[in-house]
From TrEMBL:
Residues 328-347 are annotated as: Disordered. This is DNA-(apurinic or apyrimidinic site) lyase. It comes from Brachybacterium phenoliresistens. Pfam families: H2TH, zf-FPG_IleRS. GO terms for molecular function: class I DNA-(apurinic or apyrimidinic site) endonuclease activity; damaged DNA binding; oxidized pyrimidine nucleobase lesion DNA N-glycosylase activity; zinc ion binding. Its EC number is 4.2.99.18.
């Protein structure tokens, strides 16, 4: 299942590929009959909130998005959904999710026959996007969009996010922080990789109840997530390690090789076996202390942690001394997790 940064990239790809254009919409599979109602409408905007994608359509270009006639297609990819982009050269940053099926001479993409499972096809003047296998694909009005936003916790990638909603929800709960981070009603967009990595960076045991954390600790988690997820949204890759922690055991055959990421073929990108502190590194030595990383089930997904760095007993002291976000802040601004050599080459 894609994490929130990927859905934000999809929204950007849809804006870049179809924004302000009248588009053709159809449901080759036939299961999204409402697609016919929007056929010929203008794709006015696309936004992500957590793992939900909301594509705004207006009847014509003179209507501003947000006008009461605006309709929103809500898409949740779930485990199996994907978007496939095809079009003329330079059409949409198609590496968002799903590879472009056609990169041939101009015009070829127009003849691309949709897969029979295509729930929604959006076709513009420069290219098309096919949606297959989503968990949700439905049309909402403005009130429906509002309900989606209100139901979800704040999304660290949205400018309108209120981090205090996250702080309050966590501190009011006796549920483990490792479970709360996966609850989209508490914070939207965090998935299994960000959960494990952010807790390591905070030196927090995933099993600590939310109410045992100080407001400063919870705010620190948020403030650390924002630049990490922005980096992910910009590059399509999750990198949480600081450069000085990456090469400790580069020779070890890591299990993280099973985690495919955009940019894997890019020699300048941070290799995935160096990108994480704990995710899929169970039994391997911690990059900081050498203790074997552990794994266990939490919120129906496997969580990974270092039992020494993330011990309950020492967390308060370590928070003050070692919290990475605090180190980032020393320079006066959040710095990206130092993969500068690879960022620009991803397009
Ligand atoms: Zn450790």
């Amino acid at each position: 299942m894609p994490e929130g940064h990927t859905v934000h990239r999809l929204a950007a790809a849809l804006r870049a590929g179809f924004g302000s254009q009248a588009v053709r919409t159809s449901s080759p599979q036939g299961r999204f009959s409402d697609a016919a109602e929007l056929d010929g409408w203008v794709l006015a905007d696309a936004e992500a909130v957590g793992k939900q994608l909301l594509i705004a359509f207006t009847p014509d270009a003179s209507v501003a998005p947000g006008d009461p006639v605006t309709r929103y297609v809500r898409v949740h990819l779930g485990l199996y959904g994907s978007w496939t982009f095809a079009g003329e050269e330079g059409f949409a940053p198609a590496h968002a999710i799903g590879a472009p099926r056609v990169q041939g001479p101009e015009g070829d993409w127009r003849r691309l026959v949709p897969r029979p499972t295509t729930r929604l096809r959006i076709q513009g003047s420069q290219g098309l996007a096919d949606l297959t296998g989503p968990t949700a694909c439905e049309v909402l009005d403005g009130a429906g969009r509002r309900r989606v936003l209100d139901r979800l916790g704040p999304d660290p990638l949205r400018a309108d996010a209120d981090p205090e909603r996250f702080v309050e929800r966590v501190r009011a709960s006796r549920t483990a922080i490792g479970v709360l981070l996966m609850n989209q009603d508490v914070i939207a967009g965090v998935g299994n990789i960000y959960r494990a990595e952010i807790l390591f960076r905070a030196r927090l045991d995933p099993a600590v109840p939310g109410r045992d954390l100080t407001a400063g600790m919870v705010r620190g988690i948020w403030e650390d997530l924002v630049p990490l997820m922005r980096y992910g949204a910009r590059t399509g890759r999750i990198v949480t390690t600081q450069p000085e922690h990456r090469r400790l055991e580069a020779r070890i055959l890591e299990r993280s090789r099973g985690t495919l990421q955009n940019g894997d073929g890019d020699p300048a990108a941070v290799p995935r076996e160096e990108s994480f502190y704990v995710y899929h590194r169970q039994t391997l030595p911690c990059r900081l202390c050498g203790t074997a990383i552990r794994s266990g089930d939490m919120a129906a997904r496997t969580v990974f942690w270092c039992p020494r760095c993330q011990s309950v007993r020492s967390r308060r002291a370590r928070w003050t001394l070692e919290h990475p976000a605090a180190a980032w802040a020393e320079s006066g601004e959040h710095r990206e997790p130092a993969a500068a050599t690879s960022e620009e080459s991803d397009g």
